[in-house]
Amino acid sequence: MHWIDYAIFGLYLAAMLGIGFYFMRKNKSADDYFVGGRKMSSFHIGLSVVATDVGGGFSIGLGGLGFIMGLSGTWLLFTGLIGAWLSAVLLIPKVSKMAAQHNFLSFPQFLKQLYNPRVALMAGIISAIGYLGFTSSQILAGAKLASATFPNISMQNALILMGAIAVFYTAIGGIKAVIYTDTYQWILLMGGLVFVGLPVAYFGVGGMEALRATLPANFFDLTAISWQQIVNWFITIVPIWFIGMTLYQRIYAAGDRKTAQRAWFVAGLFEYPVMAFTGVILGLFAKVAFETGIIGAGMEGTFDPEMGLPLLLRNILPIGLTGLILSAYFSAIMSTADSCLMAASGNLITDIFNMHNSGKIMLLSQGTTLFLGVTALLVAWKVPNVLELMLHSYSFMVSGLFIPVLAGIFLKTRSSRGAFWAMIVGGTTTLSLILSGLDLPFELDANIYGISLAVLTYSLFHFSEIKPQILHAKKTD
């Protein structure tokens, strides 16, 4: 890259760190650090929500899907639109009302109010582990981007660089720094990809003529996807909108129901169609570039589809624009990594160790976030695939937490024992099946079997507890 590109990228990194230092001086309490003082606007929250959910993992992962399967890969984020709008209608009214009464800081505190402290503790453990893995996937996405863009930087050194920057500004600035940087980073990402990346890449690979000559017809077919794949994405991604700690923190930060709902409706539209088609189409362009020798020539070993898009942008963008687009992709990665790291930190302090009322809350929060960030970096060191790590983290959280949340929303009488054991059975089942590497029936995701057993477990406890109550009521009548 030219020195101008390095300068643009350097200015971007300096700006992110500057925002972190600014809010480090503003934060005075756990409310400031974890939920932004509960006074954030729907505009900032909405962009932060979509930046967090789509972020770098999906940006890099969508490029990989476009490279492998073409336009049908957009269905991945259609599930994000459905999840955002469903949770806006079904979840936010109940959560906002309870949060206003009890000043929640975390998602498990919501479950504590619905059930009991033991349920909240288990939810905190599951959420912390899941978001630690999700943070790792974002650090890995950043490392892949950096190593593809800077040929002289190894993947290991790129991991260290990406991890250090993301962890540092998140640890010092808290949720306010996260939400405000997410806003600017999302604008940078969409502006860079839509107005620069798409047109330059389109003409760089040879336009429509090259696309039609190089790619098979199924790459342009939205229906070229199995029903199992759509079901797997749906059951993994839609529920995360009901159990994601990062999302609950933003509901609390909104301060009221209407602000949060507006933010969720906006976030859903940005997920699909805006980001879904942008990311996948760029990945499709990368496939053309690979097949025609623009990228990948002389590379040894199997080509990683998730590296296609970063390599394409590096090879075709002119001086100045390379630095801009690189900053855009790093911004997407940062926006998810920082939010997930904040979520894991909040779970650890608020729900597992119950130390959010400590007199040294700011120092404790920053130290915990730093520790978890280093741990996430070590996990990223061991796992090679961004989308795989991200979806596995999703699956683990969803299978353990989704059923207790649904029961809490829709049932008037709730089983605390059922919720507790549904978390353990659901999460353990999914994690065991993932680690086993078994070929599951009907090619369905392990998460589906975990959720099914969680439903069965909760139901058994629920009906065993409610049946005596019904019999007692009949006797008294």
Quick overview:
Helices cover 81% and strands 0% of the residues. It is an all-alpha fold. It has a single domain (3-386), classed as Sodium/glucose cotransporter (Up-down Bundle), CATH 1.20.1730.
Question: How are the SSEs placed, and which strands pair?
Answer:
Layout: H1 3-26, H2 30-35, H3 42-69, H4 75-90, H5 92-102, H6 107-114, H7 117-149, H8 155-204, H9 207-214, H10 227-237, H11 240-243, H12 245-254, H13 257-291, H14 308-316, H15 321-352, H16 361-382, H17 386-410, H18 416-436, H19 446-476
Helix pairs in contact: 1-8, 1-15, 3-7, 3-8, 3-12, 3-13, 3-15, 4-10, 4-13, 6-7, 7-8, 7-14, 7-15, 7-16, 7-17, 7-18, 8-13, 8-15, 8-16, 13-14, 15-16, 17-18, 17-19, 18-19
Describe this structure in words.
It is a single chain. By secondary structure, the chain is an all-alpha fold. 81% of the residues lie in helices and 0% in strands. Helix 6 (107-114) runs antiparallel to helix 7 (117-149), helix 7 runs antiparallel to helix 15 and helix 13 (257-291) packs across helix 14. The chain starts with a helix and ends with a helix.
CATH class categorisation: Mainly Alpha
Large-scale geometry: globular
Largest sheet: none
By DSSP, the count of extended strands is: 0
Radius of gyration of CA atoms, rounded to a whole number: 22 Å
> What do the pLDDT scores average to?
82
User: Judging by the overall fold, what is the CATH architecture?
Assistant: Up-down Bundle
Distance between the termini: 81 Å
Q: What's the name of the CATH homologous superfamily? A: Sodium/glucose cotransporter
**Low-pLDDT residue spans:** none
Remind me, CATH topology?
Answer: Sodium/glucose cotransporter
Count of individual helical segments: 19
In sequence order, what are the helices and strands, one letter per element? HHHHHHHHHHHHHHHHHHH
Percent of sequence in beta strands: under 5%
State the domain count: 1
User: What structural category characterises the helix and strand content?
Assistant: mainly alpha
The share of residues in helices is over 70%
